[in-house]
């Protein structure tokens, strides 16, 4: 029975490459000199630190530019608020979103069911598996999901006959 999976998974090697490029640019640019601006990756996400709030936002902008050039969607980023740090510094945590939330997965399954196609959607952890007897119905389901905005970046993988 043909099936495919709907997932929301960022391309981590491309994010790492964009992070490295952004770190180099922040270290070399004149407007970041003597601001202590840095972008680091840790277990929680990306931490952007600098001497002022506007330098943190400028460093975030540099990171976003590098991600766009590497064709990584900005929907994977969840920038938090700028928190004040010690000695007047500022810090921001940017989380990297991965996986489909249960509520969003339910919306996807409901959208597919409302199309009255002969396909079934099943929620599997952080993905949605869609299966049916006819390949054409699966392709219509893909087009339907692509045409709707769920607020996250979706990809369609494991298309099997």
Structure in a nutshell:
By secondary structure, the protein is of the alpha+beta class. It is built from 4 helices and 9 strands; from the N terminus they run E-H-E-E-H-E-E-E-H-E-E-H-E.
List the helices and strands and how they pair.
Blueprint: E1 3-7, H1 12-28, E2 38-41, E3 46-50, H2 53-69, E4 77-79, E5 83-84, E6 90-96, H3 102-114, E7 119-124, E8 127-132, H4 135-146, E9 155-160
Antiparallel strand pairs: 1-8, 1-9, 2-3, 3-6, 4-6, 5-6, 7-8
Helix pairs in contact: 1-2
Any idea what the shape is?
Answer: elongated
Structural class: alpha+beta
| Quantity of strands, as a count | 9
Helix and strand run: EHEEHEEEHEEHE
CATH topology of the largest domain: Alpha-Beta Plaits
Q: What do we call the CATH homologous superfamily of the largest domain?
A: YajQ-like, domain 2
What average pLDDT do the residues reach?
Answer: 89
Q: How can the largest sheet be summarized?
A: 5 strands, antiparallel
CATH architecture of the largest domain: 2-Layer Sandwich
* Count of spatially separate domains: 2
The portion of residues forming beta strands comes to: 25-35%
Our count of helices gives 4
Gap between N and C termini: 6 Å
Regions with little confidence, pLDDT below 50 for 5+ residues:
none
CATH class of the largest domain: Alpha Beta
């Amino acid at each position: 029975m043909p099936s495919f999976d709907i997932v929301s998974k960022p391309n981590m090697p491309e994010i790492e490459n964009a992070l490295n490029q952004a770190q180099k640019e922040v270290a070399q640019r004149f407007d970041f000199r003597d601001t202590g601006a840095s972008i680091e990756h840790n277990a929680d996400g990306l931490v952007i630190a600098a001497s002022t709030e506007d330098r943190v936002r400028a460093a975030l902008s540099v990171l976003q530019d590098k991600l766009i050039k590497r064709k990584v969607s900005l929907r994977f980023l969840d920038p938090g608020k700028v928190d004040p740090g010690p000695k007047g510094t500022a810090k921001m945590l940017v989380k990297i979103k991965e996986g489909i939330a249960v509520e969003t997965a339910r919306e996807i399954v409901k959208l597919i069911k409302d199309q009255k196609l002969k396909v079934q959607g099943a929620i599997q952890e952080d993905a949605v598996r869609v299966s049916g007897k006819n390949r054409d119905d699966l392709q219509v389901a893909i087009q339907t999901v692509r045409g709707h905005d769920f607020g996250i970046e979706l990809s369609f993988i494991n298309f099997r006959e």
